[in-house]
Amino acid sequence: MDPDPVTHPDPVAHPDPVTHPDPVTHPDPVTRPGPVTHPGPVQPAPPVRDRQWLLTLLPAFPLVLLVLRLWYLSRQDLPTMLLLVQYVSPLGLVSALLITLVWVLPVVVLTGRALGTLLVVSTRDEPGGARSWLVRASQRIPGWVVLLATLLALLTWQMRFLPALLMIAVSIGGLTVRLRYPDRPRLVRTVCVVLPIALAAAAYTWLAAAIVDAFGQEDLATGFLLLVPPMLMPLLTGPVPARLARLVTHWPATAAALLAPFLVGAIFLRAPILPTIAVEVGADARAGTAPQIMRGHVITVDDQVTTLLETPGSVRFIRNEQVLSKTLCPDPDNAPASPVEVHGWPVEETALEWIAPARPTAPPDPRCLGRPLTG
Questions:
Q1: DSSP letters along 166-179, please?
Q2: How far is CA 35 from CA 28, 32, 40, 41, 323, in A?
Q3: Are 273 and 90 in contact (CB under 8 A)?
Q4: Average pLDDT over residues 38-47
Q5: Are residues 145 and 95 in the same domain?
Q6: Global pTM?
Q7: Do residues 102 and 156 make contact, with C-beta atoms less than 8 angstroms apart?
Q8: Which of these, 277, 281, 267, lies nearest to 300 by C-alpha position?
Q9: How far apart are CA 119 and CA 128, in angstroms?
Q10: Which of 7-21, 45-59, 187-201, 285-299 has the lowest mean pLDDT?
Q11: Same-domain check for residues 97 and 225
């Protein structure tokens, strides 16, 4: 028998080829530093002006006005002023302050926004041209505040000032469009040119008869207040020359800000804070006085006496058994000075006064004129 065939072993499997490691990467060559430059002197940062203390004047200013009003009413007599402080109602003082000066807030908001926006539009191509407190203040006024101020002015400004209100509102709208949409010339032309001309024509159509009446009665102030503002509307919606921008915006606003407290104070010092009455006093046999009429401001009334501050500033204490009659007298400062009307709307009345029901006109009481009621 043949032997089994010889089986050869499997061929030797060669190992996988040896993989060499990645070549060693050398770091970037060291770069030599350039020449050492010595920095110049460090410039100090400009000092930041802290104006927060101005906020403390906001509540202090009305308080000063109230104290000055009592001092003025007492004719600069300290005992009389202390008597008024004791009896005058704080709520009455605050109410008189608000009613008398409610028109001031729209003036500040609207004129500040208009002048500040005009300065920005006129100097936006000039480096640092709009660097003014007026610009910063106007840019911090939100649009809804401007809208509310316009509505408040519409209700609280006298009719003869409403053309000026329309002029300021159109100016703010036109300047705002120029500032926000400089790449839309058609919109700018419509809001800044066409709209002011159309509103001016409508205003003159409505005010024409009143303007003629005002100049016919030689009421020049009312005539110019009705005539001039619509004429200026198309001119106040565009920029002024950059070299004149600060002259017509920044400096007038600064002067107005400095003079405004004195103007407001002078107006409030004449505002009535106590009712004016006329008291008919009978004869006093013990004092040897004849019947008379006393007219002044009533301070207080109790069970025994009526305390009256007469117009010259003297305080009178009248026993109640001597009082024959009393009457409330109108304030002579509230008498209308202009007879001009715009379609039945007196130019010295506000929209609230014209719309709200008014007290019917009655002949003056003789006691307010110094004549006794009883014979």
A1: HHHHHHHHHHHHHH
A2: 21, 9, 16, 19, 103
A3: no
A4: 48
A5: yes
A6: 0.77
A7: yes
A8: 277
A9: 11
A10: 7-21
A11: yes
Whether 206 has a pLDDT exceeding 50, the answer reads: yes
> Does the pLDDT value for residue 14 go beyond 70?
no
- My answer on whether 202 and 295 are in the same domain is no
Q: Would you place residue 49 in the very low, low, confident or very high pLDDT band (cuts 50, 70, 90)?
A: low
Domain annotation covers residue 295: yes
Cα separation, 347 vs 269, whole angstroms: 24
Shortest CA distance to 211 belongs to which of 337, 340, 336, 339?
Answer: 340
E-assigned strand segments in the chain: 276-281, 292-301, 305-310, 315-319, 323-328, 341-342, 345-346
User: Does the pLDDT value for residue 31 go beyond 90?
Assistant: no
Residues 194 and 293 in one domain: no
Pick the range with the lowest mean pLDDT from 117-126, 191-200, 224-233.
117-126
Residue 300 within any structural domain of the chain: yes
Q: Taking the alpha carbons of 190, 136, 258, 75 in that order, is the dihedral positive or negative?
A: positive
| 99 and 203 both lie in a single domain | yes
Query: How much is the pLDDT for 333?
Result: 64
Among 157, 162, 158, 195, CA closest to 176: 195
Host domain of residue 193: 89-268
Residue 200 has pLDDT above 90, yes or no: yes
Residue 358 domain flag:
no
Out of 25-29, 64-68, 173-177, which region has the weakest mean confidence (pLDDT)? 25-29
Q: Is the dihedral of CA 280, 282, 284, 290 positive or negative?
A: positive
Whether residue 303 is found in the same domain as residue 202: no
CB atoms within 10 A of CB 309: 21
Are 120 and 158 in the same domain? yes
For the chain, how many structural domains are there in total?
A: 2
CATH number at residue 292: 2.30.30
Q: Is 21 inside a domain boundary?
A: no
